[in-house]
Design brief:
- The complex is a heterodimer of chains A (about 120) and B (about 120).
- Chain A has about 120 residues and is mainly beta.
- Helices cover about 0% and strands about 50% of the residues of chain A.
- Chain A starts with a strand and ends with a strand.
- In chain B, the strands form 2 sheets. In chain B, strands 2, 4, 5, 6, 9, 10 and 11 form a 7-stranded mixed β-sheet that branches.
- By secondary structure, chain B is mostly beta strands.
- The chains are: A mainly beta (about 120), B mainly beta (about 120).
- At the A-B interface, strand 5, strand 6, strand 10 and strand 11 of A face strand 4, strand 5 and strand 10 of B.
């Protein structure tokens, strides 16, 4: 079975400060990892993914994430937060070796960036 | 490219009725997945269709079913509705793939269908 944990329901940061949204995962095969963002009254949007290769991946809106195999983590980061980054963030995992079309999502982390 | 479209956007049904939701993926996308989103349970995977075949299934009862047509459009059906089925149902499309490529593509989500069961 595959699973994702986002240990923080809520993350609060001040504008201009760095932000981190945490994600840990569990799969039996090769992990394919994704971050999505859901803005208020808008649909889920893809931010970035890790499939293979460089552990640091860069995505939309200045976000990046680091894949850490030993810690089974894929934390989302941004060097300088904007108020407009306030949204609900979801981490998702697929098992690259079996049933790769099935995505398991974390419960989501609400990011609030205050001016 | 046009995005993922879902119809209807809002639906109110009574317990015991059945409902059919529709999803049109992005042109060229062959994989369509369905999710149930609720405040308490988050995003729960229902099933994935690829080239008209159900390729993956989540842990939902048999009342939840789906299908995919040759043009990749997909429908989801829920029979004998229960109050607990009230949720936002999201459809997501991706380019898809088979074998080692099956899961590498990101998903594009539609706006969802808000189903209320009374």
């Amino acid at each position: 079975a595959q699973s994702v944990a986002q240990p923080e329901d809520q993350v609060n940061v001040a504008e201009g400060n760095p932000l981190t949204v945490k994600c840990t995962y569990s799969v039996s095969g090769n992990p394919y990892l994704f971050w999505y963002v859901q803005y208020p009254n808008r649909g889920l949007q893809f931010l970035l993914k890790y499939i293979t290769g460089d552990n640091l991946v860069k995505g939309s809106y200045g976000f990046e994430a680091e894949f850490n195999k030993s810690q089974t983590s894929f934390h989302l980061k941004k060097p300088s937060a904007l108020v407009s980054d306030s949204a609900l963030y979801f981490c998702a995992v697929r098992d690259g070796d079996t049933n790769a079309g099935k995505s398991t999502f974390g419960d989501g982390t609400t990011l609030t960036v205050k001016p | 490219k046009a995005g993922v479209t879902q119809t209807p956007r809002y639906l109110i049904k009574t317990r015991g009725q059945q409902v059919t939701l529709s999803c049109s993926p992005i042109s060229g996308h062959r994989s369509v997945s369905w999710y149930q989103q609720t405040p308490g349970q988050g995003l729960q995977f229902l099933f994935e269709y690829f080239s008209e075949t159900q390729r993956n299934k989540g842990n939902f009862p048999g009342r939840f079913s789906g299908r995919q047509f040759s043009n990749s459009r997909s429908e989801m059906n829920v029979s004998t509705l229960e109050l607990g089925d009230s949720a936002l149902y999201l459809c997501a499309s991706s380019f898809g793939g088979t074998g080692n490529l099956a899961g590498i593509y990101e998903q594009y989500f539609g706006p969802g269908t808000r189903l209320t069961v009374t």
